[in-house]
Amino acid sequence: MPRRLSGVGAARATGAGTAVWDGSEPELGDPPAADAVDADAELERFEAARNAAREGLHAERERATDRLDDAEAAVFDAHIQFLADPQLAEGVREGIGDGLPAEHAVNRAFGEFLARFEEMDGRMAERADDLRDVRDRVLRALTGAARDDPADLPAGSVVLAERLTPSDTARLDPDRVAGFATVTGGRTSHAAIFARSLGLPAVVGVGEGLREVAAGTEVVVDGSRGRVVVHPDAATREAAEREEGAEVRAEPVATADGTPVEVAANVGRRADLAAAAEHGADGIGLFRTEYLFVDRASPPGEAEQYDAYREALGAFPDGHVVVRTLDVGGDKPIGYLDLPEEANPFLGERGIRRSLGPDADVFETQLRALLRAAATESGGRLSVMVPLLATVEEVIETRDVMESVAADLGAAGEAYAIPEFGVMVETPAAALLVDALVDHVDFLSLGTNDLAQYVMAAERGNRRVADLADPRQPAVLRAIETAVTAAEGADVRIGVCGEMAGDPELTALLVGLGIRELSVAPTAVPRVKRAVTQVRDDAARDLAERALAADTHQGVLDAICECGE
Ligand code: PEP
Ligand code: MG
C-alpha cells in the first residue's frame, strides 16, 4: 500500500529510487573520568583538529565552486568563520578545563550555540545546520570517523536523513542520487537551496514519520507537492520517472490549441546562464542581480556590471533578458550597504525603497551599466525591472532617475539605449494598482513568492506558516487575477517569475488565468515546456474559474488535483 508523508518541497522536481539512510553524525561514547584526561594533550588535539577542519573546509569550498557557484560555495566561508569564532573556541577550552576530552568539549560548546540558534525562527534556526556541519567536521577530525562517501551510493538512491548539512548536500551527485528527504529543515535551509541549484528532487521537514521508512524501501520524492510516497504504486513511480526524463526543447512552445507561452529562466549566478540555455529556456525572465552584490566588500562597479549584463545578453541572442535591479533588505542582507536594524525587515527598507533612498548611488551605477548594455547590438533584448514596488510615485521617480542617467550618458558621449521598463507585482499594493501602473510600464511580472507572503501576512521562509504562504491560497489567486485582468485590459504583458511558475502542476492554472510568460528555475524549463504543450485552452480556463470560485485552500487544491487526474 502506498503511504504519503508530507513535508516542504525544496526543489520542484520528482525522483524515484531506493531509500538509503545517511547517518553522518559521528557518535561519541561516554566521557572518561575527569582525572584520566590530560588537559594539555586534549588542547593540542583540539587545535590540530581545528586546523584539519579548516583545511578540509577550504578544499570543500573549491570543490563546491566547481559544482555550484561562487555565491553558494561561499556558504563554506561562513563555516570557516564559525570555526574561527573565539567564543566557540573558548567554550571548548573551558570544557577541557572541566576535565572533558576534546571531542566531548567540542560537543558541549557547539551544543550551547546550537540551542541558541534553534530557539530562533526561520532563517536563523536553519543556520543551525551550518553550525552542526562545522561541529561534525571537527569531531570527525578528532575521532577519525570516516564520513559515508556519496560516491559509494548505488545509482538510483534516495537519501533519507535526520538533516543534511550543506556539505553533505553539495557532495550529492545528481547522477547517482534520485533525491533526498529529511526529517527536519525548511525551504530556505542551505540544503534546500543547494538542492534547487543541483536540480535534485528534495522534500525537507517531513517530520517523525520519515524515520519509519526502512532502508531499501522504494520511495518517490515529489518536491513539487512536498510529498514522499513510500511503496509507490506503479503509476506514481512511472509518473516520477517520466518527469525525471522531460526532454529539452530549444524552440518556443504553445499549448495543445496553439496559444504561445514563453518559458524563460530565472538566473542569479553565472552558472545559471549556461544551465538556462542548456535546458532550452526562451530567454531570461528574471535576472536576480543581488548575486552580483553579495559576498564581497564593496558593490560591483559599472564596468563589472556592464560585462555581466552583456554576458547574459550574449547567452540569449534571440531572446529577452529581464534584469531586475538590486533587491536588498528583507532576507537578503548585504554587509557593506549598512542596512538598518529593523523589527520587520520584510516590511522595511527593501528593494526599490532602498534604490530610491539610501542606495541611490548604487542604483545610478547599476542603471548606467544597464542602459549601456541595452545599446549592445549583438545579443538579446534587455529589459529592466524593479522589485517591491508599492506606489505609482515610485515608478515615476524610477523613470525620472533613468532619464537623468540617460542624459548624463548622452552628455558624456557614451552609447546607451532606454530599455523596456517593467515592475514586479509582488506587493498587494502593486496588484491592486495595476490599472494605474500600466500607464507607466512596458510589462509586469508577478513575484508570487513575495505576493503570497504579503497577501497572507505569512513569512515565506517560516515553516510554521508554509501552508499560508502558498500561492494556491484563494486570496493569492484572486490577487493574481485582479492584476492579470487589469494588465490584459490595457494590453500590457504580464508574466509570473515566482516559484509557482516552475511547478508543472500549476501550468494549466496559470495559462487559464491568462498568463503567457513564465520564468522558472533553469532545470524546471523542460518540465514546464512539456506541461504547456499538454494544456487545452478551454480546460485551463475552466480550471482557473473553478480555482477562483474556491473559497478555501483545500478547494483550490482539489480543483488543481481534479484537473490533473
Ligand atoms: C518573488 O518574490 O516571487 C520573486 C520572484 O522574487 P524573489 O524570490 O527574488 O524575492
Ligand atoms: Mg520577490
Outline the structure in words:
Helices cover 46% and strands 15% of the residues. With 565 residues, it is α/β, with parallel strands linked by helices. The strands form two sheets. Strands 9, 10, 11, 12, 13, 14, 15, 16 and 17 form a nine-stranded mixed β-sheet that branches. The mean pLDDT is 89.
Write out key terms for the chains shown.
single chain, 565 residues, alpha/beta, 17 strands, binds phosphoenolpyruvate, binds magnesium ion
Structural class: alpha/beta
- Which geometry do the CA atoms define? globular
Number of helices: 24
Q: Summarize the amount of helix as a percent range.
A: 40-55%
User: Residue-averaged pLDDT, rounded?
Assistant: 89
Bound molecules: phosphoenolpyruvate, magnesium ion
Distance between the termini: 20 Å
Number of strands: 17
Summarize the structure.
This protein has 565 residues and is α/β, with parallel strands linked by helices.
Layout: helices, strands, pairs:
Elements: E1 3-6, E2 8-11, E3 14-22, H1 39-67, H2 70-73, H3 75-84, H4 86-97, H5 102-119, H6 122-126, H7 128-143, E4 157-161, H8 166-171, E5 177-182, H9 190-198, E6 202-204, E7 218-222, E8 227-230, H10 234-244, E9 253-254, E10 260-267, H11 270-278, E11 284-288, H12 290-293, H13 302-315, E12 320-324, H14 352-355, H15 360-374, E13 381-386, H16 392-411, E14 420-425, H17 428-432, H18 434-437, E15 443-446, H19 448-456, H20 474-489, E16 493-496, H21 507-512, E17 517-520, H22 525-533, H23 537-549, H24 553-564
The protein binds phosphoenolpyruvate and magnesium ion (MG).
Residues 286, 288, 327, 426, 447-450, 497-498 line the site of phosphoenolpyruvate.
